[in-house]
Amino acid sequence: MDHGLVFLHGQSPDFLQALREVPGCWLDHWPSVVRGTGTPCQPDAFVHGAWRMAHANGINAFPKHLANGLDVVLETTVTGFELGGQDITVLATRGGEPVSFVARDVVLALAGPQSLALLDSPNSWRGIEPVRALLAMMPSVPSATVIALYQPENAEVPPWDIWYPETSAALLLVAHDSAKRDNPKNVALVLQARPAWSRAILSTDEGVWVPELLGDAARNIGSWVARPRTWQAHMWHHARTSPDCELAGPLLLDLERSRRIGIAGELFAPGGGVQAAWQSGKQLALRLLEEAQG
Amino acid sequence: MNEIKQRLQDIVDRDATHECAGFGKHALCVRAVAVADLPTRFGDFHIVAFWNNRDEKDHVAIIRGDVVGHADVPMRVHSECLTGDALGSVRCDCRDQLEAALKRISELGEGLVLYLRQEGRGIGLLNKIRAYSLQDGGLDTVEANLALGFRDDERDYAIAAHMLMSLDVRSARVMTNNPNKLEQLKGYGITVAGRIPHVLPPNEHNRFYLETKARRSGHYINFGAELILPEQSDTGIAPDSAE
Q: Which one is catalytic: B153, B156, B173, B195?
C-alpha cells in the first residue's frame, strides 16, 4: 500500500535500472488506465518516453533497498549542527534525550525548508549565507492523504487506476491501489489533497478533514466512497518541491578544516520527483568520493 | 528570390530530411526549417529558423550577406536574455552586445548572429530572477549561480556548432569576450579563424556584473576598454566602443 507516492516514474536509464534492481515485483506502466483531465502533480510522468512503475510491496521498497548495508538510526530527530575540533557534530534527540553523532562530512537529503531549518543556527559558517538565501526561495508543498479500505460488497471497483479530478477544489488525485494486486481482499483507494487545500487544513484535526475529503470523492465517484470500512490519514508537510523550484545540481559546502555539508534531494536536479532526488544524491556521492580520493 | 536567399532556402530544403548522430552530450541535432527577409534598424538581414531534437526552443540565425560556404565569417553567438534583449535591463550588457554585433556585421556586409534560446530552458528564467534577488542581497553573479546549482557558464554551444555546420560556414571569426565559448566551438569541430573583441563600456548598474564576469569567469574584459590581448590588436575590426 502506498500512502504517499502511488507510483514512480522516470526517463533516465540509470534511474530506471536502479529501480529494476529492487527485489520484488514491479508493475510496469502502472497506472495504465487514467481518468480525468486534472493536472497530475508530476505531469512529466505522462509525457512520451516516461516510464511509470509501481511496486507490489509499496514504493518505499526503493529507499529500503538503497539503505541496505547502511547503519540506519530511526526514531531520532536531528536538531542542528556544531563545529568542534576537526569534525561536525550532529545534534539530535531520541525519546526526549539529547544524542549526538560526529562526522567529517554530513549530507542533508531533505526537503528544502527542512534543510534550511537545520542550517539556520550557525551564522558564522563561511559560504552559508547564499545557500540559506537560496533555500528560503524554494518552498515545498504539503499534501493531506487518506488510505481508505472498503469491503467489496459495499463498494464498486473503479474502472481506472488513477483519477485526476478537474473540478474538485480539494482532491488532487484518487488512486485505485487495490488495482495493483490480483484478487485483492478489499477495494483500496488512496486520496491525495491539493496543496492549497492541504495547507488550509494543516492544523485541523483529521477527524474533521478526512470526512470532507472522502465526501468530495464520493460526490464524484459514488456514495460508497464516503463510508470506508477503515481509513488511515497522514499529513505530508513537505510532500514535494513546488513545481516552479528546480536547481541544476546538489550543493557541497566547504567549511573550515575540510569539513563539508552536502545538500541533495528532489530540489537539486532537473525535473523533480524521486528521479531528481536519486540523481542529485548520486551526483553528490560521486563528488564526495572523487574529492576523498584526491 | 535573390541568390543569397536562394542558397539559404536550398539549405532549408536539404534539411527537411536531415538526421545525424548529433552534437554534444545530448546528441543535439538541428534542422533549418524556414528562411525569410529580416529588415532591421541595423540593416537588412535574412533570418533562418532552426528546429532542434532536444527541446521546444527554436533558435535562429540572423544573417547578413552571403555566408554559405564562406570562411572567416564574422559571427556572434548570442544567448537569449529576456530582461536585457527585450526589456532593456541594464543589469547586464546583453542588449548592448546584441545591438553592437548586428550593427558591426551590418557594416561589414557579411556575417551572422546565432541567437540561442538558452535562457528559458527548464526554469532558467525563474532561476535568473532568483539570482538577481540574491545579488540584490549583496551576492555576486557567480556566487548566486553556484548557489542556484549552475556551473559558472552552463551554456552549451553544441547548438551553435551544428547551426554553423548546417549553414556550411567554413570558419568563423567569433565576436566574444568569453574564452569558454571559443573552446566549446573548437571542441565541436568549428574552425575558429580568430576572435573579434566585443568590448562595451559598462554602466553604473552592470559594472559589478561585468567585473565579476572578468574576475571569476575569465572573460576578456578591460574596463578602460583598452586593447590588452594580442587578438585585440585587430583594430580594423574592433567594435565601435573599443575604437
A: B153
